Each structure stands twice: as structure tokens, then as C-alpha cells.
Amino acid sequence: MSSRPLRVGLFVTCLGDQFFPQVCEHSATLLRRLGVEVSFNAAQTCCGQPAFNTGYREEARAVAARNLELFDDVDYVVAPSGSCTAMVRVFYRELFAADPPRLAKAKQLADRFYEFSEFLVKVLKVEDVGAGFPHRVTYHDACHLLRELAVENEPRRLIRAVRGIELVEMQDFKLCCGFGGTFAVKFPEVSVAMAADKARAAMEAGAEYLVANDSGCLMHVAGYVHRQGLPLKTMHLAELLTKRE
Q1: What is the reported pTM?
Q2: Which residues in the chain land under pLDDT 70?
Q3: For residue 35, what pLDDT is reported?
Q4: How would you classify residue 206: left for phi > 0, otherwise alpha for psi between -120 and 50, otherwise beta?
């Protein structure tokens, strides 16, 4: 008898819920194509990062405590966001450092919580997912994904396996796009200047599309591109990996 499929709970981020539902849909579609049983717990809310980053630790702790109770029935939790994944994997430990029972629960969840591209490559052990997209793309490293989770090669391996694609690197590709959540609200001039640098780097690399794993980065760069009327499109990796062109 074959073993049962992996059971994955999809963590739908705030931006995914409110602005980019297609990212969550593409994530679920691809995971199911790969034989994964995907579920969505509608009781989930925010990961708590906006409150945490702006100093509202008690509010962040309340949100995080709720999430600790929602995913006991799945093998893994997968989020199409390095930012949310870093919050759960890294910063929940800080939130619950003085609460041993919840700290133990946070560690258990952290061990099962993966960013989308990381899960595909490290857990499912796949790179070629059967996608095809004959275009020139560049990849933007989201800050939390790169710096907190050290996920750099996994997205690129998945992109390179897409049929017909050409992956080009931007100059200074590890630089932040300028979104940074509340950073964009507190320092709008700096934030916009950083988005301009990122869009310019993508265009100078000759890319038609800028691909990233975090909707916040994509929303920020896409907003700048739209306002300036630039010939550059943005796309989440999950959407790219379901393409069949």
C-alpha cells in the first residue's frame, strides 16, 4: 500500500487574502499537482508581524497564540511569503520566550512551517514542476526570505527548470526593494527611491518580468512601475510555476 499524501495547511497571508488571492490559488494548485493534500483553515488571521515590527508586542503575541492552535492536524504549513514564514520560524520564539508551554508549541510549529519555494525543493525534493514560460525574467530576493531564512538558491533552481525561460540577475540583486511593511509608510521618499532602483536594475538586466516570493515586494515595485508607465511586469513565483506556455 502507498503511504498517504502529505497534508499541508496553506497559510494565506494578509496581502494574499486582501489583494493577491491568485497567489494563494496558484500555490494550492501546484501543491495539489504534486500530490499534496492541501487544506485552508479559515480561522487563521495575520501572522502578527505588522504589530510586532511596530512595537505592539502584546497584540502580536495574541495573534501568534491563536495561530499556534490552528495547524495540529497537518504535517506542514506552507506560506507563499518569506516574511510571514520568518515571523513564525524566527520571531515567535522571541514572543513566547517567557511562556514555556507556548514556546514549546511555537518551536513545534516552526519545525513544520515552510516558505513555498523552500518546501518544494527541500521537502518535496522537486525542481522541475512542468512549467513553461518562454520569457526573460529576473528574481528579487525578499529581505526576510534571504536574510532570516537563508533561502536564496531554491527559487532560482525552480525558475531555471521552467521550460523556455531565461533567468537574468540584476545588479545588486540582494538589495531591499524598499517596501519593508511599515517602513514604506514611515519613510515614503526613501521607500520610493529604493523601488525605483529595483525597477531600474530589472530593466537594465533586460527582464520582461520581475519575479519574487513576497506579495509585499511585488505590490511595492508594481505600484512604482505602474505610476511610471514602465515596460516591466511583476509576478509571484507560485504563479510562474503554474504557467504552461
Answers
A1: 0.94
A2: 1-2
A3: 97
A4: left
Nearest-angstrom CA–CA distance, 233 and 228 = 12
162: CB partners within 8 A, 6+ apart: 131, 132, 133, 240, 241, 243
What CA–CA distance (Å, rounded) separates 39 from 95? 27
Structural contact between residues 170 and 205, judged by C-beta atoms closer than 8 angstroms: yes
3-state secondary structure of 135: coil
pLDDT of residue 124: 98
Residue spans of alpha helices (H) in 69-214: 82-86, 92-95, 100-112, 116-118, 143, 153-160, 183-186, 188-204
Tell me the backbone φ, ψ of residue 137, rounded to 5 degrees: -125, 155
What pLDDT was estimated at residue 2? 52
Which residue carries 536564496 as its cell? Answer: 152
CB neighbours of 109 closer than 8 A, spacing ≥ 6? 67, 68, 71, 77, 88, 92
CATH 3.10.590 fits 136-240, yes or no: no
In tens, the pLDDT along 119-160 reads: 999 999 999 999 999 999 999 999 999 999 999 999 999 999
Say whether 139 sits in a helix, a strand or coil.
strand
**Residue ranges per domain, the chain?**
7-123, 136-240
Taking the C-alpha atoms of residue 28 and residue 34, their distance in angstroms, rounded to an integer, is 10
Quote the DSSP letter at residue 169. P
